Amino acid sequence: MALDNLVQKVREQVRERYEQSNQSGLWQELDKNLQAVLQETFAKMELVTREEFDRQSVLLSEARQKLHVLEAQLKQLETLVK
């Protein structure tokens, strides 16, 4: 969904530039292929949404906390064994 929004924003900006330069006739021709090309290009970039990035950041933070706890427990066990 975010990819569609990005494509739409790019299309709008290009259209505005064409209209400002009095090239609106060329815009109609360009617009026929612009959306498909943009979606294909962005799909190849393997972009993630902000929500997915934030979700993965939270999971990584939780994993780090668990790792620190396990490292502390391991050190305690190593001292008991010695």
Structure description:
The protein has 82 residues and is mainly α. It has 2 domains: 47 residues, no CATH class; 34 residues. The chain has 3 helices and no strands. Helix 1 runs antiparallel to helix 2. The radius of gyration is 25 Å and the shape is rod-shaped. The termini are far apart. The relative contact order is 0.10.
Q: TL;DR of this structure?
A:
The chain is mainly alpha-helical and 82 residues long. It is 88% helix and 0% strand.
Distance between the termini: 57 Å
Please, what is the average pLDDT?
Answer: 83
Secondary-structure element string: HHH
Radius of gyration (CA) equals 25 Å
Low-confidence stretches at least 5 residues in length (pLDDT < 50)?
none
Q: Main beta sheet: strand number and arrangement?
A: none
Which features characterize this protein?
82 residues; mainly alpha; 2 domains; 3 helices
Helix-strand layout with pairing:
Layout lengths: L1 H19 L3 H21 L5 H32 L1
Helix pairs in contact: 1-2
